[in-house]
Amino acid sequence: MEVFQSEIMSLKCVDADLGKACADTCQVKIDECLEFCDDPNCNSRCQGQWLDCLAACPCYSGCPDGCENCPNPICQGPSEHLFIIDVRMEEFNKGMHWNSDTGEVEFRNFDYQVNQGFDIEDSCYAMMNGEHWLLGGWFNPDAVAKIENCQISRQASTLEFPFHGGIFGSCASFRNKIYTCFDGRENRTRECITFDGKTQEIAAGQTTRGHDWSDLVVHDDELVTVGGCDGDGENCHGVTEIYGRDDGWVSHSWADFPVHELTNHAMVSDSKGIIIITDSSYDNTIYHLDFLPNNVYRWATLGQLRESAFNVSATSILGDVFIGYNNLERIRIDEREISATIVYETGFELRLDHAPFLAVDANFCKEE
Predict the structure, then answer these.
(1) Cα distance between residue 64 and residue 363, in whole Å
(2) Rounded Cα distance, 92 and 23, in Å
(3) Is the whole model's pTM more than 0.85, yes or no?
(4) Dihedrals φ, ψ of 107, to 5°?
(5) What's 75-360's CATH class?
(6) What angle in degrees, to the nearest 10, is found between the helix axes of 16-35 and 40-55?
(7) Which helix (H) or strand (E) covers residue 167, if one does?
(8) What is the mean pLDDT of each run of 10 residues along the chain (368 residues)?
(9) What are the residue ranges spanned by the domains of the chain?
(10) Farthest CA pair distance, the chain
(11) How far apart are CA 37 and CA 42, in angstroms?
(12) 170-174 and 337-344 as β-strands: parallel, antiparallel, unpaired?
């Protein structure tokens, strides 16, 4: 179904092709939304969501100059390769680069700045406005660092609200800020702190349950968290809560994890919803939560990892999910079925415990 476009793309915009691709995606979303509508209020809601989606596209009203200073994910560029850093590679000052074109893996030089008293263990990683950030950590809970020039660059600013990060809480880039959430050690299992590169603020509203030992992911301009614990590993559950545009955190009981309590998992989003990857405590099973129009949710079990994992790390690029622990595994999802392949077998215990997976270009940290 075609809808009249009140948002007109600037044809002179240098990124017009990306703008059109983004607008086409918005059109698909409104068609899906209207398919489930049976009253005028629903139609108006779909129309409003479509207009918001379109305005955020390059060359439209929210990004009139195209991809320049535009946070839309379609503007992130050719970041289709992986670079993985981890505390177990600190000793050697190495990072693992996987090239999506050749399938080759190289351990490239990367300076962790350990001699400067910095350690990334349990720090929280997020990409904000095209830059790689590390916040907090086990030994440096107030640290702020960026990844640039193939090294960790400790910033002069510090976190006003210390964050023990990674394994105990979650963080995600959302609306041009990094949200650090659910830090059980600091008794903040129900709240998030925003970071814009310079300052921190407590985000409005709290979750109804604590989500320590959970994960956090962005889907369709909403923050989503599933599972976790009310305390530091205590009173765990499978509650799903969503942080939307206007309502703050809202519990969605019909989207709660259907099996049992859920902790120590990784989540990524795709066009249809949320992919949840569990570790060896849950038989390494992969689940999908479909987000259908008008607050309809549907769970599905997709399969299992090829290799057992604990404190699993994951990211999504090229339309697939990449998962790592001792090896690097690629998960392709096709009509409720998955195909899993080991794209790199280390032959030793790499143990990527909640390691940062960076989306980078082919030449990232490559020696000249």
Answers:
(1) 30
(2) 46
(3) no
(4) -95, 100
(5) mainly beta
(6) 160
(7) none
(8) 54 78 84 84 88 89 86 71 90 91 91 86 88 91 93 92 79 91 90 93 93 91 92 87 82 89 90 89 89 89 85 83 86 77 77 86 86
(9) 16-72, 75-360
(10) 64
(11) 6
(12) unpaired
